[in-house]
Structure formats: structure tokens, C-alpha cells
């Protein structure tokens, strides 16, 4: 447990983070917009990249915004109610909720937008650099998964560079989640068969 965070506070922060993080905005938007069951389209993932494979760029943008927003809201709400240290717990569990939502039998998304959202809420310069890392890699390589892996994998180094050493362990934990959820993508990257952004 983090210093100055009691068990009760930690459980409350984890619960708030998980419940907000587990809202499957991709599936909800796809349903509302008549795009079909996202779990039966493309990769079957519930995130923005797979929504983009439906051809609806607006829906993909909204999914990205809402998935990032739920992570940010979880962090900001817990920070206001329970303190900044508890907000780190909320950040971690918002990611866990997105990746393993109980409502979808623990088969969720890959956590990239939520990862960026929680970093922006915890310390916006770190979040911006992580976003810039993702964007630069996406422009250079045109592969969403590689961009995500680079943004996550470098986040703890950016935290140190920005003097936010208290966020290093959280960044490492979030990175482990991102890499685990991208394990199949990593195999395809190694094999050279990973699809590029926008490819159906």
C-alpha cells in the first residue's frame, strides 16, 4: 500500500477506478451507431483501433476520447475525494477494469487510451509526452500496437526525466498491463504480419 493510504481508502480508490475503467465505450458506441458487435469485427478488441476497422472514423475518435476520459475521471475524482496517492491506485485499477471488465467476462480492451488518460490526469506533462511518443511512432511506423508499446515502455523514463519519481512504479505496472494485452501483437510484430493503422 502507498504511504498515507489506509486499507479502506485503497479499496475505495480501487473500486472507483475499476468500475469507471470497466465501462466498454467501444461496444456501447458501436451498438448505438449500428456498427455491429465489436467483438465479432476485426481483432474482436473493444478499443478505438478496432472501431476504426468498421470504417467509422468518428466512432473511433469518440471511443478513444471516452476510453481516455474514463481513466482521467477516475484519477481526478479519487484525487479530489481521497487524495493524490490514492489516485495512483485508481489509475491502476481503471486500467485493470478496461482490460478485464467483469461485464464482458474479463475480456476487455488493450488499455492504450485509458493508459494515456490516467497519465494526463496524474501529471499532464507526462501524459502529453506519452501521447507525443504514440503519435510520433504512429506517423513513423503506421502501426498502432508498436506505437502503444513504445509510449508505455518509455513512460517510466519520462517520469524520471520530469522529476516524477513517485510515478515510476505505477508507470511500470501500467506498462506490464499494456505489454500483456499486446502479447499477440508482439508476436505478429516479430513475424512482420501486424496490420497497419486503418487496415481492415
Global outline: globular
Mean pLDDT: 92
Structural class: mainly alpha
Q: Number of helix segments? A: 10
- Low-confidence segments, given as residue ranges, are none
Q: In sequence order, what are the helices and strands, one letter per element?
A: HHHHHHHHHH
Strand content: under 5%
Number of domains: 1
Percent helix: over 70%
Distance between the termini: 43 Å
How big is the Rg?
Answer: 16 Å
The largest pleated sheet is described as: none
> How many E strands?
0
Keywords:
200 residues; mainly alpha; globular
Please sum up the structure shown.
With 200 residues, the chain is mainly alpha-helical.
Describe this entry's structure for a reader:
- The protein has ten helices and no strands.
- The protein is an all-alpha fold and 200 residues long.
- The chain has one domain.
- Helix 1 runs antiparallel to helix 4, helix 2 packs across helix 4 and helix 8 packs antiparallel against helix 9.
- The model has no long low-confidence stretch (mean pLDDT 92).
Write the layout of secondary structure elements.
Blueprint: H1 7-21, H2 25-32, H3 48-52, H4 57-82, H5 84-99, H6 112-122, H7 124-141, H8 144-161, H9 168-181, H10 183-191
Amino acid at each position: 500500500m502507498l504511504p498515507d493510504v489506509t486499507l479502506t481508502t485503497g479499496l475505495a480508490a480501487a473500486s472507483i477506478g475499476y468500475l469507471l475503467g470497466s465501462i466498454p465505450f467501444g461496444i456501447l458506441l458501436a451498438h448505438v451507431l449500428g456498427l455491429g458487435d465489436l467483438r465479432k469485427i476485426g481483432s474482436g478488441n473493444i478499443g478505438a483501433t478496432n472501431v476504426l476497422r468498421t470504417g467509422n472514423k468518428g466512432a473511433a475518435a469518440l471511443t478513444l476520447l471516452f476510453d481516455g476520459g474514463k481513466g482521467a475521471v477516475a484519477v481526478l475524482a479519487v484525487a479530489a475525494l481521497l487524495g493524490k496517492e490514492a489516485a495512483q491506485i485508481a489509475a491502476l485499477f481503471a486500467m485493470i477494469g478496461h482490460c478485464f471488465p467483469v461485464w464482458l467476462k474479463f475480456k476487455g480492451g488493450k488499455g492504450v487510451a485509458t493508459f494515456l488518460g490516467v497519465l494526463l490526469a496524474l501529471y499532464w506533462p507526462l501524459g502529453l509526452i506519452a501521447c507525443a511518443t504514440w503519435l510520433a511512432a504512429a506517423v513513423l511506423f503506421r502501426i498502432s500496437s508498436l506505437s502503444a508499446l513504445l509510449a508505455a515502455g518509455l513512460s517510466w523514463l519520462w517520469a524520471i526525466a520530469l522529476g516524477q519519481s513517485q510515478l515510476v512504479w505505477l508507470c511500470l505496472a501500467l506498462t506490464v498491463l499494456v505489454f500483456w494485452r499486446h502479447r499477440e501483437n508482439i508476436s505478429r510484430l516479430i513475424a512482420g504480419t501486424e496490420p497497419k493503422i486503418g487496415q481492415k
